[in-house]
Amino acid sequence: MSASGAAVVALHPEATADPHTIRWVVPAGTLPFVGAPKAVPAALQALRDGGTLTSIVVEPTAVLLSTDGDWRTLGAPVRKALAEALAEPSGWVAPAQPGSVLASAVEEVIAGEVGEYVRSHGGRARLMRVEGSVATIALDGSCSSCPARGVTLGLRFGKAVDALCPGAEVVLEENGKPLLLRWGRR
After folding, report:
1. What is the pLDDT of residues 71-118, one digit of tens each?
2. Looking at CB atoms within 10 Å, which of 10, 52, 128, 182 has the fewest?
3. Which domain range does residue 119 map to?
């Protein structure tokens, strides 16, 4: 808790390919949506209104902030404003068409280390659909008939998705039908 009694959210900055954008990593589930927020708490809104921030985008485990300025100069005040804003989650308003946090988490897993593992074995993972807290994926290529696909789903895919989107469930689909292979909350 901070001196004001608000919860303190852990965050740290990571560089991105764009030198004007910093990815501020936050715990999974900090904000319940992904995309460009329609509104943000006053501390962050003041930086956006004043032109310091040119873009704010929420990811499952990060907030991307962009500026036309120099991060060496702006880093500390932006961090302070973001920390204040994250301590006030009710002040964040999802975009009119918010992206699914779970869909974004699954796509991040597919694009990352787990997807690379699947591709290195001649397979391909695809997000088929998201319904509530259940993501349905398909494993194609050599993974479609692999007897270890349940291990891949549970030990790799399920854990990686759960780390980004706690409480989610991942279901494997084959030929348009869900298999009994499920990982996550039940």
Report:
1. 999 999 999 999 999 999 999 998 876 667 888 889 989 988 999 998
2. 10
3. 99-178
Q: What is the pLDDT of residue 183?
A: 54
H/E segment holding residue 156: none
113 lies in some domain: yes
Integer Cα distance of 173 and 180 in angstroms: 9
Judgement on whether residues 58 and 75 belong to the same structural domain of the protein: yes
Q: Which of 41, 74, 91 is the last residue of a domain?
A: 91
* Measured distance CA(111)–CA(23) in Å, rounded: 17
Residue 123 and residue 141 in contact, taking contact as beta carbons nearer than 8 Å: yes
Average pLDDT for the chain: 85
Task: With respect to residue 103, please indicate whether it lies within any of the assigned structural domains.
Answer: yes
Closest C-alpha among 146, 117, 177, 159 to residue 169:
159
What is the total count of domains within the chain? 2
Q: Helices 71-86 and 42-49 sit at what angle, rounded to 10 degrees?
A: 150
Residue of 106, 98, 89, 94 lying closest to 168 (CA atoms): 106
